[in-house]
Each structure stands twice: as structure tokens, then as C-alpha cells.
Specification:
Order of helices and strands: EHHEEEHEHEEHEHHEEHH
CATH class of the largest domain: Alpha Beta
CATH topology of the largest domain: Alpha/beta knot
CATH architecture of the largest domain: 3-Layer(aba) Sandwich
CATH superfamily of the largest domain: SPOUT methyltransferase, trefoil knot domain
Mean pLDDT: 93
Helix content: 25-40%
Number of helices: 9
Strand order of the largest sheet: 2-1-6-5-8
Radius of gyration: 23 Å
Length: 247
């Protein structure tokens, strides 16, 4: 079972996310255990302050190292096992990808640190964490929403969480390409019809159609993903045909 600790001064933000849908079902299935920690409780001053003015001046407040270092040390001592991955949510971090989600899903213990205010004391970044993650090139009020995104993407990959193990294998980015279109009943909805091949029952043709549409969607929306894609000779032929169609 994976253990996920979340350090935040607003842990109540996670109640709705962890208590519903796949994340809740994962906990019920004992695939994951969540632990919310208000690191304000580790502050060593009577006012329980966790931030202070930056040395050298400047706008905003900076999170102090002491509460976060002590909170992480306490969690590691209680775990008494393999060293966890300690993840800092930060706009300066590594751009988050499906491959990173798959990497984290192989771990036993993850600790997420959600900051607020202007930033972190640099010693947190330099001496404590193992990973810095950014979910995009924009700035949020705090790291909580970013942590929710990362946790959701990781937990759904854990064994037994989704109804079918194939559910995530064909997800966009899991294969390095964007996923093909999906259709369901009715076959004709207000004159908008499902492609005939999907109704044919011919599984070989269906798989071929799906692969072509995967290549088409990736070519149109994210051509950069094709640069490193490992394609068969036949897939490369299909891609050339798709490129001609979109000239």
C-alpha cells in the first residue's frame, strides 16, 4: 500500500478531493493511505508562525525551514522504512508529465510539501526535498492544487484502483502520443454518427483505425510528441499520409 503524506497549512482543502471518486475508492481498496499534516503544528514559537520576511528585503513572506524540516523528520521516523520521495510543488520545478506520474506510482511513500506566500526558504529546496514539480508555466496561490493534480494522476495508476488495468495504458501520454477518439451509444445521435469501422466487429480494422486516429490527433495537436515516438514502418507510412492530408 502506498503512503501519501501532505504537508499544508490548509489541509482541509484536501477533504473533498480525497473523499470522492477514484481517490476515495483507492483508499477503500487499501491501495493508498492519505495523511494530512498541518505543518503549522510544528512551529517552534508560541504564535505558530511558519513564515517570515525575506533577508535582503523584498515583497511577500517566505516559509521558514524549521516547521517543514521537523514535520518531515517526524513522518520519516514514524514510517521507519524506505526513504520517501519528498516532493515540493513549485513553479520553478520540473514540468510534470505522465512519465513522472508512472515513476512516482512505483514508490511506497510520497511526501508532498505545499507552500504558500512568496516562496520557500532555499534550504528546504537544497537540503530536504528529492523532487521539485511544476504542473505548468503559471503561478497558483499555493501548492495545494498542484499536489491534488499530481496525487490524482499517481493514485489512478496503482494496481487495482481502476476497473481495468488497460484503462490507463491507453491514456493520452502513457504511450507517448495522444489518445484516439472514443464513441458510445447511440450510434446515431441527432445525425452525428459513429465511424462505421467501430460498428464492424472487425477488431483488426478497429485497432488500425485507432492507431491512425492516435497519429492524426497527435500530429494536429501535439506534433512535438512525434519527434521521439518509436513508430513501426507501417505507422510511419500512415503518418506520412496524414501529413499530406493536412498540407
Amino acid at each position: 500500500m502506498m503512503k501519501i503524506d501532505v504537508l499544508s497549512i490548509f489541509p482541509e482543502m484536501f477533504a473533498g478531493v480525497f473523499g470522492h471518486s477514484i481517490l476515495n475508492k483507492a483508499a477503500e481498496k487499501k491501495a493508498v493511505e492519505y495523511n494530512l499534516v498541518n505543518f503549522r503544528e510544528y512551529a517552534d514559537n508560541k504564535h505558530k508562525t511558519v513564515d517570515d520576511y525575506p533577508y535582503g528585503g523584498g515583497a511577500g513572506m517566505v516559509l521558514k525551514p524549521q516547521p517543514i524540516f521537523d514535520a518531515v523528520a517526524d513522518l520519516q521516523e514514524k514510517a521507519a522504512g524506505k526513504s520517501p520521495r519528498i516532493i515540493l510543488l513549485c513553479p520553478q520545478g520540473e514540468r510534470y508529465t505522465q512519465q513522472k506520474a508512472e515513476e512516482l506510482a512505483r514508490e511506497d511513500h510520497l511526501i508532498f510539501i505545499c507552500g504558500h506566500y512568496e516562496g520557500y526558504d532555499e534550504r528546504i529546496r537544497k537540503y530536504l526535498i528529492t523532487d521539485e514539480i511544476s504542473i505548468g508555466d503559471y503561478v497558483l496561490t499555493g501548492g495545494e492544487l498542484g499536489a491534488m493534480v499530481v496525487i490524482d494522476s499517481v493514485v489512478r495508476l496503482l494496481p487495482g484502483v481502476l476497473g481495468s488495468e488497460e484503462s490507463h495504458i491507453q491514456d493520452s501520454f502513457s504511450t507517448g502520443l495522444l489518445e484516439h477518439p472514443h464513441y458510445t451509444r447511440p450510434a446515431d445521435f441527432r445525425g452525428m454518427t459513429v465511424p462505421d469501422v467501430l460498428l464492424s466487429g472487425n477488431h483488426r480494422l478497429i485497432e488500425e483505425w485507432r492507431m491512425k486516429e492516435t497519429l492524426r490527433r497527435t500530429f494536429v495537436r501535439r506534433p512535438d510528441l512525434l519527434e521521439d515516438a518509436e513508430l513501426t514502418d507501417e505507422q510511419q507510412k500512415w503518418l506520412r499520409e496524414i501529413a499530406k492530408q493536412h498540407e
